[in-house]
Structure formats: C-alpha cells, structure tokens
Amino acid sequence: MTLPTGFAERDPALTLRPLYFVNRDGLEAWHARQPPALVQWMRAHGFDAASGSQLTLPGSEGALAGAVLGIGDALDPFSYAHAPRALPAGHWELSGELDDDARRALQLGWGLGAYSFTRYRDATRTPAQLVAGELDPEVADILAACLRVRDLVNTPTQDMGPQELEDVARGMADRHGAKFESIVGDELLEQNFPSIHAVGRASHRAPRLIRLDWGSDAHEHVVLVGKGVCFDTGGLDIKGADGMRNMKKDMGGAAHALALAELVMARKLPLRLTLLVPAVENAIGPDAFRPGEVVATRKGVSVEIDNTDAEGRVILADALALAGELAPALLLDFATLTGAARIALGPDVPALYSNDDALADAWLAAAARVRDPMWRMPLWRPYLRYLTSHVADIANGSSTRMAGSITAALYLERFVPAAQKWAHVDVYAWNDSDRPGRPCGGEAQGLRAAFEMLKRRGAVA
C-alpha cells in the first residue's frame, strides 16, 4: 500500500523524534514521570495541554529532543490533525501507548492534517512525517474518501464539469467491477428525466444522470444520491459576485456520494449499492430555464420555477424518483442545498432530515461514535404551504425567508415514496478559513458517520 502524505515507512536510517500526546486531565500525571528540568521548561512556556497546543522539547546543545501536543477527545481525529503542520519537518514516532481506537483516530487525523490541494501548485511546506507502524487499512480507505471529497470540491469547474464527474464515477466502476451508465443531453428527455435536462440545458456542457450499480442481489440495497451542480451561476436569478465566487463547490453533495460509494466498495461491505448523480451546470444562455416556467418531472409532479437559483432540488427530484422506483432498503442523499442550513447550524454541522426515526437515530449514533457531527432538523410538513403554486403541483421556492432548509427538504420528500426509508443531508462541504486539520476549501462532512452507519448495518444484515 502506498502511504498517504504525512506518513513514512520505518527505516533504521531515519532520525526519529519522540512525540507525546497529553490532555489537560492527564498533564500533572505526565509531569510526574518527567525530569524536573523538562517540567520547568513546559511551565515556563505556559503549556497547559489545551487541545490544539504544541511545544517542542529541548535537547543538548540546542538540539530538538521531541515534542508534546495537547489533545482533547482522544477518539476525535481532529484532536491530532494540527500535528503535521504544527511540528517541525522531520520524522516523528509516538512515545507512549494509545489504545486501538485512539491510534486509528491519530492516523486519520494525521492524514487529514497533512493534506494540501496540489493540482495546480506544489505544497508550500512538507508536513511532519509520522512513522507509526502499519497504517490501519480501514483508516487508509476512510482517509482516501475524505481527501477525495476535498480534491473534487477544490477542483475548479473548468476541470470538474459534468463530464469530469462522469469520468470519476466511471473510473470507480472500472476499479471495483461495478456496472456503469450515463444518460446524457437529450437522452434525458427520451428516458424521462426532464427536470435534470431543464436545469442543465443552457450550458455548453451537456447535463447527465450518472449511475453506478455494485454488489450482490443477496444483500440489502442502498441507494446514494448526490447533487452534482458543477457550477451555479444562479441561472437567470443570477447570484451576486460574493455568492457566486465559490460555486465550484455546488457539486459537494455528488463528491460525498461518490466518495462514500467508493468507500463501501473498497471495504467490500455486504450491501448492494446504487449511486445516482444528476450532474449539470446551472448556466445562463438563450435556453436557460426561466422564473415562472412549469417544469415536468419523472414522478409526474409539475413544478413552477419560483427561483432559478433553487436548482439543486429540481435536479434531485428526478434522481430521487428513480431511486424510489428501485425500492431500496435505504435511500440517502447528500446536497449542498441551502444557505438557510448554514444560518441555522453554521458551516461545521450538516443538517440531517429523515422520514424514519430509526434511520435518523442510527446515523446520529454513528456520528457520535466517530466524532463526525450532524444535527437532525424537522420535516415540519405544515411548511409545505411556503411551496404553494397557483399553476403547478408545487413551487421550487417561495417569497418568504422562513424555514428555507426545511422547505427544501420537504420539496425533496415530495419525490420520495411515502413508505421509502430516506435521509437527506444538507451539507456545506467547505471550510471558509484555514484551521488546524481543516484547510480552507472543500471538506467531507457526515461522510465518516454515513460509512460507520452502513458498516454496522451490513454487519447485522
């Protein structure tokens, strides 16, 4: 296995520096085992083992003898993610013991913290290298999935349009022996995916529905759907410059669904998997869909376009309708759907909606286990009144700013069969600024929790 960035194989020729991890509760006990001079050095620098802190330790004649890092929750990967950038370059090894779960969290956090997006420029510095024995194979696959999301979202639209998303999915299918299909351009109309076509028809880059199928019919069927708006101008209801600046990330839902699908396949979970990604560019042109138009959908529900900047839910409608026709045991969708979810929960916590309490509880429990935060929001159905249309079955938006994330989820639910177990994640998929382990740019959120839930589900199926 090729080691990810930030990791090195053990080699007798390497100079290894010891690395200590301490939390506030254990600091005094750790002090009691150290030489008095070292304890004095730490106290002189005010090191209190706060989460995210670090202090290099002096050796003889000005040499670097090691480092101590403060951590919080030992099972949270981000407790360790500051290390690769906070430490001086070189090779480091853990000094002391961590239990298996904490060691896995360290490995995952280290890999997340060592990440740089290097497609267009080299990394500004080499991260510190962890020499930690064998990298846990599942950790390696989870790390690859998280970094896959970051890379896909960070890639600008000229290199990550609908065709490029298709190429990513096709490559996954080839690697894992999955069946692959893509319905492109006017074929969408011929095969009854009119709402995907309506949103994407104005772009010179043809819209498409990407589909991947993997696994045995003997296993429980799970369908993953990801919103693939590769760039969102807002359409004729055009965004302002600030709102449009980062809209390469509007395919963040597709990035999550793609990465989760590959993770399921890489770990060979005992599931039957279908991946659906409606991929479009919401462009402005002579054939752009317009406010006031009534758009047909696969489900037969007519949609009045209140706002062309609420396009994600329009393309998801056809994908969710197809998913419902497949009658899976679970239907999960990811979408960078609303700014309203960010107003409610901020950038770090995805909003989870579900029509099934057991499914929601399982996802939230998994999120707690792997420290991948989410928060359940209500499908408050009286708010469907905000999507009333006087000429169609439903509108894709409303004139009120009330309950924007909830109404978007309710819109999606309209295209899911009533008996279908379904969960929707309104995800930001982005870090607005650099933080330890969370560089500015694309971010995987709710992905590790989803995998943990599916892994547990497969284990008891």
From TrEMBL:
GO terms for molecular function: aminopeptidase activity. InterPro entries: Leucine_aapep/pepB, Macro_dom-like, Peptidase_M17_C, Peptidase_M17_N_1. Keywords: Aminopeptidase, Hydrolase, Manganese, Protease. The keyword Nucleus does not apply. Residues 307-314 form the Cytosol aminopeptidase domain. CDD domains: Peptidase_M17. The keyword Zinc does not apply. It comes from the Bacteria. Coiled coil: none annotated. Belongs to the peptidase M17 family. This is Leucyl aminopeptidase family protein. It comes from Luteimonas lutimaris.
